[in-house]
TrEMBL record:
Biased composition (Gly residues): 1-11
Organism: Xiphophorus couchianus
Region (Disordered): 1-31
Any GO CC annotation of this UniProt entry: TORC2 complex
Family: Belongs to the PROTOR family.
GO biological process: TORC2 signaling
Biased segments, Basic and acidic residues type: 16-25
Protein name in UniProt: Cullin N-terminal domain-containing protein
Alphabetized InterPro entries for the sequence: Bit61/PRR5
Length: 113
């Protein structure tokens, strides 16, 4: 008598295990997408070329990430960390080139004397 509550759902623990595996696979896919977007954005700031159709693939990845539970975190990460990192890369390159031009300019001045 009274056994209706226990094991009453179809599939029971194996169905839950399947859902957990599905969730893990989705998260792994989201992490892979996140990493590929991160690497591509850094590459662009480093003036490296994107592969064929890579921009489209990255755009689709961003759209998919925004639909997941990670969407708001990704937006914050993109704005506050990844783009900031890219701007630091650009700033450092500008400083490098400014210093190189400054050194070159001084050497040209010595040659003119």
């Amino acid at each position: 008598p009274g056994g209706g509550e226990k094991g009453g759902t179809a599939g029971g623990p194996s169905e839950e295990c399947g859902r957990n595996k599905e969730t893990q696979q989705r998260r792994a896919g989201a992490n892979a997408t996140w990493n590929s977007i991160h690497n591509a954005v850094v590459s662009v700031f480093q003036k490296k070329d994107l592969g064929e159709n890579e921009l489209y693939t990255l755009n689709e990845g961003v759209r998919q990430l925004l639909k997941t539970e990670l969407g708001s975190f990704f937006t914050e990460y993109l704005q506050n960390q990844l783009l900031t990192k890219g701007m630091v890369i650009l700033r450092d390159k500008i400083r490098f080139y400014e210093e190189a031009v400054g050194l070159f300019g001084r050497h040209v001045g010595f040659l003119l004397l």
